[in-house]
Write a structure and sequence with these properties.
About 40% of the residues lie in helices and about 15% in strands. The mean pLDDT is about 95. It is α/β, with parallel strands linked by helices. It is globular. The longest helix has 19 residues. It is built from 9 helices and 8 strands. Helix 6 links the parallel strand 5 and strand 6. Strands 7-6-5-4-3-2-1-8 form an 8-stranded parallel sheet. The structure holds pyridoxal-5'-phosphate. The site of pyridoxal-5'-phosphate has 13 residues, from strand 8 and helix 9.
Length: about 230
């Protein structure tokens, strides 16, 4: 078995164990294999093991791989989204995890109308208000929530976050919990379901699942060190 096959098997075991611990179904957790910096050949190894959801954080890198790989792969856009990339990202990705401001959301909505699309998106939260990271603060999202709901084209499926880097994965737990609670708060307020929570990476995805993640974004644990 290749490393990728063994790694995917091990990750699936951890997903099942985390779901069992928290009374969830493993069917409710989508593993996104993050393929940034890895070649199309490596991505195909994952595909051959049955992996169908993959994530990239740069358009150009994704566009170099998409034509080389089976059309049944589902591409997720997880990186910072620049306005000048929106027109190309919307039609090529099944879910955009990184809508990080009201302005970007409004622009993406306009472009989606021009293109005749109803893209599924997540709103990215910067819960710790880190300088180095993009995303809504919790308060900014509360403030912008009504305006976001008025967008007719964007289907807001949920929230995404990347917590502050840390050595102990338990330190991510409060951020994951805060994302779920914010989702619950907004969903209840306006009866908007927002079923998706994109949270958890190689170091902390079991904890994210315990806290309700529906989409985990896992790179190095699948493909090895970058
Ligand atoms: C690179 C990246 C990941 C995957 O990180 P790993 O630590 O390799 O699992 C997840 N989410 C985002 C936004 C990323 O840029």
């Amino acid at each position: 078995m290749s490393d990728v096959a063994a790694n995917l098997t091990e990750i699936q075991q951890h997903i099942h164990a985390a779901c069992a611990r928290s009374g969830r179904s493993a069917d409710d957790v989508t593993l996104i294999a993050v393929t940034k910096t890895f070649s199309a050949d490596r991505v195909r190894e994952a595909y051959d093991c049955g992996q169908r959801h993959v994530g990239e954080n740069r358009l150009q890198e994704a566009e170099s791989k998409i034509p080389l790989l089976p059309a049944s792969l589902q591409w997720h856009y997880i990186g910072q989204l620049q306005r000048n990339k929106v027109r190309k990202v919307l039609p090529q990705f099944c879910l955009i995890h990184s809508i990080d401001s009201l302005r970007l959301a409004q622009y993406a909505d306009e472009v989606a109308r021009e293109l005749g699309l109803f893209p599924q998106v997540l709103l990215q939260l910067n819960l710790a208000n880190e300088e180095s990271k993009a995303g809504f603060s919790a308060d900014a999202l509360r403030e912008d929530w009504d305006s976001l709901l008025r967008l007719e084209r964007l289907e807001i499926m949920g929230l995404m976050t990347v917590p502050p880097a840390c050595d102990d994965p338990e330190q991510s737990r409060p951020w994951f919990r805060a994302l779920r609670e914010l989702r619950d708060e907004l969903a209840t307020l306006t009866e908007t379901p927002m079923p998706y929570l994109s949270m958890g990476m190689s170091g902390d995805y079991p904890i994210a699942i315990e806290e309700g993640a529906t989409h985990i974004r896992v790179g190095s644990a699948v493909f090895g060190k970058r």
